[in-house]
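Write out the 3D structure for:
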Amino acid sequence: MPSLFPYRVLPAIPSTLGPLSELTMNLRWSWDHDTISLFRRMDRDAWERSGHNPRLMLGNMDQGRLEELEIDEAFLAHMRRAYASLQEYLQAPGWLARRHPNAGEIRIAYFSAEFGLTECIPNYAGGLGILAGDHLKSASDLGLPLVGVGLLYQTGYFQQYLNADGWQQETYPLNDFYNLPLEPVNGADGAPLAILLDFPGREVKVHVWVARIGRIPLYLLDTNVDVNTPRDRGITGALYGGDNETRIEQEIVLGIGGLRALTALGLDPTVCHMNEGHSAFLGVERARLFMEANKVDYHVARQATAAGNVFTTHTPVEAGFDRFDAGLVQRYLGDYSGRLGLNFDQFMALGRNNGADHGEPLNMAVLAARHSSCCNGVSKLHAEVTRRMARNTWRGFPDSEIPIGYVTNGVHTRSWISQEMSGLLDRYIGPRWAEDPTDMAVWNRVHDIPDEELWSVRQRRRERLISWARQRLSVQLRARGASEQEATRAQSVLNAETLTIGFARRFATYKRATLILRDPARLKRLLNDPNRPVQIVVAGKAHPADHDGKEIIRQLLQFIRDAEVRRRVVFIENYDMSVARYLVQGVDLWLNTPRRPMEASGTSGMKLLANGGLNCSILDGWWAEAYDQEVGWAIGKGEEYTDFDYQDRVESEMLYHVLENDVVPLFYERDSEDVPRRWIARMKFSMAMLSPLFNTNRMVAQYAERFYLPSAKRHTELAAEHAARARGLMEWRWRVRGNWPQVNVQRILPAMPKDLAVGGSMEVTAEVKLGALTPSDVHVELYYGHMDPAGGIPIANKTLMDPDGNRGDVYTYTGRVACADSGQCGFTVRVLPWHADAVLPYEVPLIAWADTAVDRARQETDAK
């Protein structure tokens, strides 16, 4: 093939239309209805053909049309208004500056393997990516000094279509980065910024692109560089594509390459947030950079840098974490481990639950946790599940004290609300719902919206959904080789007056998309009730390697082809953000049927809230926190099962019962004006109670206050003066670990407490052997409360005991148990490490409980 000399062709934009270039390149347009209306106004058909990509549309715009717009005063006024709005948004002080004016110098780097920003940048697969994109949008709204770091995939996630048998097929169209709202990042010399990574036997060059999301830059790494080998150019070829070797390559590029890219850009983050374990290698790279800059060893460097790292896990099962065997890690990071001053076994131990087990692979979640000072799940229930998964790390700790918190996910409200609903809210509750979507007082004004107007918006959006679904279905059928008669018949599916249920998500088996099909005859009766019919719109993709997920889709398609239901149930192919918006803005009810507790959070149902849709779900993920009988429906009461077939039978019966006896009757209960007043009341309660809670502005603010600001402060303190405090902390940690086997509670008095009265108290004395440690190294606690039938204390009170003399290395501690309530109670004593600079027990998971047998033997000896 001849040598090619690349050059770029830029759209010829008349100077009068100059603001269009900035408007198209800042993705704030993706959540600003007025700017989207401006793009549609330029050429509605071109907007649709471009896949809602204003940069591509502008580049392909006929010069004659641009000349028309140049003299169109109404268009120019609209453009100037949109541009002024963007500038005002970019310059306005954010929440962080108002709420935390003394936050100091802080910069947050948010790493994720995928980002769902808008459908024209297919850099996402599902909920994890959409959550990451919404995180950046809310960080922009709140004015956080945050940058995003990810990979730029040449094909993104796959495009889905179904064959004649209903089996999912995949295509991988190439993305033209130069026609996306992205820009290449250049270095000081004007050439593309390049990051170099050492891979086995070769060097891989990585280029960097940037997307602007309001005030937030998102840096995306790309290995499709001409000097790389064809295989290396494909490292960032497909999201979650390839084998395990491709996966470790991608994760090295993301973690190590991403941090090096920030360094090359002159950005030194005080906090790094790992959204899942894919970017965990940034932890070791951040420690390595700190080692070199401060002339300290790896352990001190990890202590100082981990203080500024946050790890969020979205996975409720061990099998969901990426793992790499020692041979693969040795090949890619064997030499790198030496640069950390570690031998290879020591490096592998950083990512093993059991560091001494040489057969255990490197677990990216463990590696991320070991290089962080805080870890969180993404819902309250998910945190409980994650704590159970982490019991081996925190042996001896009650589940409630395992230091894994949670920040429940949310959605970026303005990205998902319809233009019609947005306008209605502006009229009746004011613009503050958009400026601060967490303000509950503002959302409470939803109750003041006239029922008729709220219902009119819901009907209009349902009509739009159905019109769009018919058109989309016709296109799908023709592409599948269906007859013209079948394609034409698609124009009569669904009905604008019928209760419409949405079910759209990744087709993993645990999400149980076919739970509603367990009794086909009963479902058909529900769908075809002559007076109260129901219709369902379904969408979603299965992972290309998930044959069970593909089989679920095929089963759905077989059911849909039944002549009795094909007008009532449709499957929309190629689920993406555009499809999701039509669904969440148009359906009346969102159905979610995961196998509890396997839904870490889920966010699809949250997208309905501000749109006035209602949820019907298993009590899993976010719905376990959100559910109230006034805001939606629950399937079951939060039961968990070991017999999955039995569970499916029981919960499908519950689902049918809820639909038949609660949902359908309420929707069709109308007054003389044909308005479903009680349904609308439930809509209003859902909007008012849940919208201010389940949004990413609330979520990101919680990350800032619970994690980012404390982590930044701690990292700064530990890193100061060449890590002086980190050195001291590491010395303490080594000393405590080395001497902890000597620590034990030798005796407790009184051994047999007497009956006590409510309001009274009991003094307790404990003798604690500390060995080479001193009272300044530990906290000794009284642990007491009501006992359960199994002899445990499910909800304990904890009170520090005070040291009161010693005999050699045995110290006497005293404390007092308060008797607040009657009943069978118990107490014990425990010892935990303590240091003012440590995050405990996260960094030092050690605990010593009083041993009843040892105490009894000591008492018997004393008696003799």
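Residues 853-864 have pLDDT under 50 and may be disordered.
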